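Dock flavin-adenine dinucleotide; give full complex structure.
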Amino acid sequence: MGTVTAPEITTMLTLPGDPVRQIQWRFADRFDLQMLVQSARGVARTTVARLVAAGERNTHEWTAGKAEMLEAFDRAGVTAAFMEPEEGGFIAGPKNLALALSAFELAWVDGGAATASLASFLALSPIHERGTQEQVTRYKSLAAPPQPGEDRKPWRGAFALTEPIPYVGVDTGMLSGKISVAEWNEGEEPWLQVNKRGRFITNIAFANFVTAAVNSCDPRIKGSCMIILEDTDEGTFDRGTPTKKLVHQLSSTGDPIFNLKVPASRIVGGYTVKDGIIVPNFNHGEVIEAVFRRTRVPVGLMTSAKLLSAVEPVIRYQRERFRGAEGSKPGSVRYEQGIQQREDALHRLVDVWAAGEAGTSMGFAAARLFDTLEPIEKQKTAILKERGVQGGRAEMKALKESEHRAVELLSLPENSLRRAELEVDPLVDYVLKDAEANVICPATKLWNTGHGANMMREALSLMGGYGITEDCPGFLGSKWTDSALEAIYEGPEAVQRRQLTVTMTGEVFLAQFRGWTSEMRRIASDRPGTGACTLASAMNLWLWTLNYLQRATDPDGNKLYHGQRQGVTFALADALCWLLASRYQILDVLELEARGAENPVVAEGLAGTVQFLSDLCHTQAAQAAGEASRICGELVFGYNQHPAWQDGEHRNCFLASELEDYEITMPGITSIAVDVLGDDGSHPAKAGPCAGCAGSSEFLRLQNKLTICLSGSRLAKDRAAETVSRVMIPEALDYPA
Ligand SMILES: Cc1cc2nc3c(=O)[nH]c(=O)nc-3n(C[C@H](O)[C@H](O)[C@H](O)COP(=O)(O)OP(=O)(O)OC[C@H]3O[C@@H](n4cnc5c(N)ncnc54)[C@H](O)[C@@H]3O)c2cc1C
């Protein structure tokens, strides 16, 4: 008798669970992170969900209920996730992925709750990144939740950069906050007077300390800095009125006024005294840059969490839509499938789901990259210090050589000796990772929140009128409006685009990007169903367009790729983000496929899950390719003056009378001549003779290829839709409506 084996299930039967996500987002071997996810989820789906359901979002005031939420964070270990074990935390080493996972879980229920948790970390970040050891120890220990048996309340912090109009907003250089010397006795530490007004400052209703950006207005202090203020400092610590915001109401926001006397030791990162002048070790720009490059990643992930959180409520709504109606009997298609009988409803949900997957994959990749980068960055600083190089231009110059080596490494075959030699060079490793991080951090913030907000609107529209009510399961309406804030705070889209336009043209990044394009082709040859080939073609087109635009000029002879020309540079940055998100999404599915069998729970339905997630990749890759193609086409052709019928610009047109003569020697020419002028000057009804474009044939060849590469993508979408119509979901949402 032969053995009977069960047929392999190739359809995804249930929504991807934790074990699948742990593999995709690479924390299957991190028990500490798995615990953190469970704790954050616990608070999100109980305390936070109850607050939202009870209408706590309807007030701008800081309430007892909202304060209780912070204590629930403390009890669950969410607050301690930022600290080192010796500071009261439980995760050793870099914590970017930890904080990203925790923010993701909280935002799954409410963005304001996630922000309330992140804002304290944001306040601590300047100290963590650039503070002196004393500052780090003092503020992180005070902000750590009390240990069992310890009777104290943890300190909360706020980060104050933004100022009342017309000062700091996007442009962080325009500071009005001031410091001056208040008292300076011979041989003693100076005391400083800090004058700062904030606008839209999170956590301000209850903050015990504030890290504020200020500029010197005193010749005895050089430049700007960030400075730590405490609510018990001498002077005014006015928390201001709460901001009447429409979003994130579970966090506190207000416009504070500070006029405080503080010791100079509060300057973040310390200072030196040179010729009787206080010189901060870091100016405010240096501190902020170090902070935002990491903290923007969890913000991007917050919006992606919302998209994925919408899947289950939408499926439930669609399926149950007609239940209870007279003509809709159990067992009938109308009863069982509801709106899911309709292709459009399924396809739109597939789009929402795919965008959520792509953003999440890119965001977690960015968080992990910062975790790996952190020790390498320290190593880089130590090496350069040994060589007598410290910060600023000197460092950039010193790293140029490593950049050349990094580009060389990327050009070498896998098994070459020289490659092996370069791979172990820590400075080469640093510039490679740094180049990638400098692109995917702003890409995550920009694309996940911007495109995410658009897709969130799609998600709630799938619930019809219900979507835009407070009662909507999963609070989708609130999540949509909240996404708009996520696109703004910690620097709105223009800031991210501006950063991308610089970092995406770096030599090292572009060399990596070329490598990634080949990588996608290789993946496509094994896994054509992922859309990797479509993506590779779109990446090629993007790169061609960037090269072209860097050389091309407009009709007035002005350069097209130029910092001031945001119409070109920003659009190209947008196109890149689509491509990158799609790439990381594909890589995560490959990881699942490679490692899924190691976990028996995942192994059981692996083939089906991989098939479905690959179909989502293909769907997303096709959309990304379409966006890139549209943007690149507009940029390549859009800056050429369209020829007009007047002004002799019709030199290349045929005259109708000429054509009659030509027809004798070239029979058929009349039927192919498109721009024909009549003797009376009449012409076809269109803008002018068709435009030509230098280099257009190569662009069109690539674009044509790209269009052909879309083959199969709609079949993938159909297959994904079919799965969405059958996948099992729990009986009810696991948090209150
Ligand atoms: C709820 C909430 C909480 C916040 N929390 C904090 C906090 O805790 N701490 C803090 O310091 N700040 C905080 N902020 C402030 C937030 O970071 C700023 O609102 C944001 O950076 C944008 O600045 P702005 O509002 O002055 O917009 P503006 O600078 O006026 O920008 C308006 C528009 O113009 C565009 N724009 C501006 N400059 C350019 C340019 N050079 N090129 C192209 N386009 C441009 C922008 O993209 C945007 O679309 C918070 C804001 C809100 C709403």
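Observed: The longest helix spans residues 343-386.
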